[in-house]
Specification:
Layout (H helix, E strand, L loop, with lengths): L4 H16 L2 H13 L1 H4 L3 E6 L2 E7 L4 E6 L8 H14 L3 E6 H6 L1 H16 L24
Parallel strand pairs: 3-4
Antiparallel strand pairs: 1-2, 2-3
C-alpha cells in the first residue's frame, strides 16, 4: 500500500522527534544541565526501552521523565499512557510526566520535582540497569567470546 504525501510527512516528523526530541525537551535538558548538572548527567535522551521510546531515562535510577503534549490527557491516549507506565513499572521504572504547559509556566517547579525524585531514587538500593536498545547508527554491543 503506497503512502500518501501527508502520511510520509507525518512519519518524517515522528522520526525527527524520536531522534532529536522537541524544543521543550531541549529546554528542559539545558535547564537541568545549568541548575542540576549532577542530575542531568544521569539522564539520556530519546531512549528505547522495549517497545517504548522515552524522552529522558536514567538507567541507574530506573527513572523516566516524559514531556507530554495536550493530546496525552485526551481520549484513549491517557489510557495508553497508563498501560505504558504500568509496563515500564513492571521493569522497575518510575515515570514522571509533565505537560508542555507546566514546563512553560513553571520550569523551576518541574526541576524541583525531578530533583526530589532523583534524591529519593538515589536512596534506594542500586538496581541493575536494564540494557537499553542501541541508538540507530551505533553498533550493538557484542557478547564477549569465551
Amino acid at each position: 500500500m503506497a503512502m500518501t504525501r501527508l502520511a510520509r510527512r507525518a512519519l518524517a516528523v515522528r522520526r525527527r522527534i524520536a531522534r532529536d526530541g522537541t524544543a521543550l525537551e531541549e529546554a528542559l535538558f539545558q535547564a537541568m544541565r545549568r541548575a542540576r548538572p549532577a542530575d542531568a548527567a544521569l539522564f539520556e535522551r530519546q531512549i528505547r526501552i522495549g517497545p517504548y521510546l522515552a524522552d529522558f531515562v536514567s538507567p541507574s535510577l530506573k527513572l523516566i521523565v516524559e514531556i507530554d503534549g495536550a493530546q496525552h490527557g485526551a481520549g484513549d491516549q491517557a489510557e495508553r499512557d497508563a498501560r505504558r507506565d504500568a509496563a515500564l513499572a513492571e521493569r522497575g521504572y518510575r515515570t514522571l510526566r509533565f505537560l508542555n504547559e507546566a514546563l512553560r509556566r513553571d520550569l523551576s517547579g518541574v526541576l524541583d520535582t525531578i530533583g526530589a525524585v532523583v534524591e529519593e531514587r538515589r536512596r534506594l538500593p542500586p538496581a541493575d540497569p536494564e540494557p537499553l536498545a542501541p541508538r540507530p547508527g551505533k553498533p550493538r554491543p557484542r557478547p564477549a567470546r569465551r
